[in-house]
Design a protein that fits this description.
This protein has two domains: 157 residues, Rossmann fold, CATH 3.40.50; 150 residues, Rossmann fold (3-Layer(aba) Sandwich), CATH 3.40.50. Helix content is 35%, strand content 17%. It contains 13 helices and twelve strands. Strands 3-2-1-4-5-6 form a six-stranded parallel sheet, with helices on both faces.
Length: 336
């Protein structure tokens, strides 16, 4: 690990996507500020995720790019404009690529020369390491939260311990306040995910709702998810469709919950970020995607997961028994 550099006055973090990864990355902000209280932190991300970060009190500025749009339109002019905009950014003392992909490494390198990222053995796209001035070595199988903290700490000369993570402040500010009933525990259900095989079936979630004396709010982000949420609302007397929420509103809503139960996806990870109890359900992925604590636990299907070669056709999440989720929820909520 390098020593701290007191000459560092401004840094850029490159973490483009996806939502869950950005949620799990943003925890580094408070640790950077502990060691470099006066440093200015800029964040470069995909445009769709910018609203989550733009109001963060520890971020100086958020710069958004739209790689997805460039790919969709196959537009050289949009690509050229993106590169020009990146080159107009300030000169940074350190540019840290927390993503470790070729696209994020290119973005970091276009911004400036003082780049830091994962070495060739620590990421799925080893060619990315060729674009960094300095790099960090950490096993790819390590928890993504620990990887995020390690690459930033290694770049800036400090170390984030498990104890620091266990006693972290809430990662995001709570911007909205929701009036929720106090006579029951309030539980958010996160029913969507980026792949079908990561989704726990709504029929089994209904059994979970029916097995707990609590008020459930079903989080949704697409019309397909809304249909499933409405089905749960109809099937379960204690389930309600959550309001349509922007990203910062979703953080605030989850911050009001007693428990979040959900698939391996961004809104579920928000519970850990905000120090809210959570149960994350895993099938084709595994516990590497979270930082487990006594109140943020993982329930996994029986399948063996190779994190270096994920099988998106692994639907074993359906084998997690609702009774197991109910039991874990009672333990987290009531200590039973």
């Amino acid at each position: 690990m390098s020593s701290m550099n007191t000459n560092i006055k401004n840094i850029a973090i490159v973490r483009l996507s996806a939502l869950g990864d950005i949620v799990n990355s943003a925890v580094v902000l408070q640790f950077i500020k502990q060691y470099y209280p006066d440093v200015k932190i800029d964040w470069i991300t995909e445009a769709v995720f910018a609203p989550l970060l733009e109001s963060h009190p520890l971020i100086n500025a958020v710069h958004s790019i739209d790689i997805k749009q460039i790919k969709k339109e196959k537009s050289f002019s949009l690509l050229k404009q993106m590169i020009q905009n990146l080159r107009l950014l300030p000169s940074y003392d350190m540019i840290i690529d927390m993503q470790g992909l070729i696209k994020s490494a290119i973005v970091a390198r276009v911004i400036g020369k003082n780049t830091h990222g994962f070495d060739k053995s620590s990421t799925r796209e080893s060619l990315a390491a060729l674009l960094y001035k300095t790099s960090s070595k950490i096993a790819y199988e390590t928890s993504v939260v620990k990887r995020n903290c390690f690459v930033v700490g290694d770049a800036l000369g400090f170390q984030v311990s498990d104890t620091m993570l266990l006693h972290k402040e809430a990662v995001f500010p709570v911007r909205e306040h929701f009036k929720l009933p106090e006579e029951h525990k309030n539980i958010a259900l996160v029913i969507g995910a980026s792949w079908e095989s990561k989704i726990y079936p709504k029929e089994l979630l209904a059994a979970v709702c029916q097995g707990l004396d609590a008020q459930f709010y079903v989080i949704w982000g697409s019309e397909k998810e809304k249909e499933a949420a409405l089905w749960l609302e109809k099937e379960c007397a204690n389930a309600l469709l959550a309001p349509k929420l922007a990203l910062d509103g979703l953080v605030s809503f989850i911050s009001h919950m007693d428990l979040v139960i959900g698939n391996d996806t961004g809104p579920t990870h928000m519970a850990w970020a905000q120090n809210i109890a959570s149960i994350t359900l895993f099938g084709p992925t595994n516990e590497r995607m979270i930082f487990e604590t006594s109140k943020n636990i993982a329930l996994h299907s029986p399948s063996e997961v190779d994190i270096l070669k994920i099988n998106k056709n692994d639907f074993s999440i359906r084998e997690i028994a609702p009774e197991k989720i109910i039991s874990s929820a009672k333990e987290l909520l009531y200590g039973l």
